[in-house]
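Our preliminary data section would be incomplete without showing what the modeling component actually yields. Below, a chain of 171 amino acids is followed by its predicted structure, encoded as tokens that our downstream tools consume directly.
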Amino acid sequence: MKVSTATSIVIARPREEVFDLCTKDDTSERFFRPLGPIAGVVKSEMHAGEVLKTGAHRTITMTDGVVLEEVILDYTRPARHQYRWVGGLKPPFSWLVRSGTGCWDFTEVEDGTRIEWSYVFELRSPLAYPATLPVLSLFKRWLVQGLNAIAADIARQSTIAAQPAAGQSSA
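Predicted structure:
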């Protein structure tokens, strides 16, 4: 049995720029912080010699000590970044979930770029479904927190770039 959640945000920047920031090596550790029992990301690193592309593998180290092995299912710049991990969670989450698949879709919209981040979890058993619902709700808040952190960083960088250099007038 599978359960899913998704959220989206519009960022007032070009799609290529948003895609590149969201898929950079250090993005996960910079923006995905713990939220209650949902761990944050300490480090995201590609396996030796691999680059981020479809079929590549990376290791994600979480703030609770969990180490997830991911496979990149789809890396189509600047439209989609999809990945899947199996196992590695600690109880109580490991009692509920067998694997997770995350997907970032980037779409050009009038105001910039829409990011839709969806997640599908494969449950260990249909009996886990009721216990999964509150965790899924909290996980969606974790996704929103991460996207909001990315949007705030892009807005801050845009503001810095728009300011005149020291000693220069903006007139």
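The chain has one domain: 2-161. The longest helix spans residues 129-162. Preliminary results of this kind motivate Aim 1 of the renewal.
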